[in-house]
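seq as requested:
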Amino acid sequence: MKESTIQWEHSHDFGVDSAQNKSKVKIVFWLTTIIMVLEIAAGTWSGSMALLADGWHMGTHSAAFLIAIFAYSYAKKNANNKTFSFGTGKVNYLGGFASAIALAIVALLMILESVQRIIEPNNIHFNEAIIVAVVGLIVNIVSAFILKDDHHHHDHHGDSDHHHDHDHNMKAAYLHVLADALTSVLAIVALLTGKYMGIIWIDPVMGIVGAIVILHWSYGLIKESSTVLLDKSVDVSTFEKISQTLDKRNTIINDIHVWKIASTHQAAILSVSSQSPLSTEEYKKILSESLPQLSHVSVEINKI
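struct tokens:
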């Protein structure tokens, strides 16, 4: 097949190109994944539902890190692929939606297993399970320190969308790690309570708590990603601001469509009317000055 010679007037690359960020997320991904496998294996062998829940909860965030890494790579690889009309910014949301569905199913299975453990208690190897849970907590703390610097920086570098997107991704990763640390603490509390106080049922109860945390996180990801995939993610205030901006230029909006094409990028198609209309480029300029997130704007102009 002959390669296309069509050239765009502007870039459709709305991804974040940060090798340093990607490298840090990779480190945390591998740390999280290794501990996830260790906790799931140890939880299954020791009979601890709390440890098993912690392992699967780490799995939810490991999946999130993997999706972020994939999105970085895929978006960069296809940045100039003409078959993606508005770039590859939605890759992250598509992957997130798919993984969230799978994780919600895992959480439901964990709840069923925990309820069964409450009805029919199993023997738990507390010492081994506690050691693994503590190791998991330590890894979460180390991961938080790896991501902490990037979580707090870059707000002072200007108004570039890339900097804001960069900060958003790292903040999300940072919060994922903190959530993992919390579930590790819950697992340790459950295991210590079971060992020293003999309250065995607290372990499967914590398993249920962990599963509910996973369900809550999965629901949030499904809700966020589905609204973007269905082009329902733009706030009403955005439409109001566009209307107010054009109203100052004595321009009437006949039709408008605005949707998200990446985490901090939006596209807009407008049909406008005016007695003294501006040029297409002038409309694009005033809209981009008012709403910097509008990375792709098309305007149809009608003279009254």
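Confidence is low (pLDDT under 50) at residues 1-6, 150-168.
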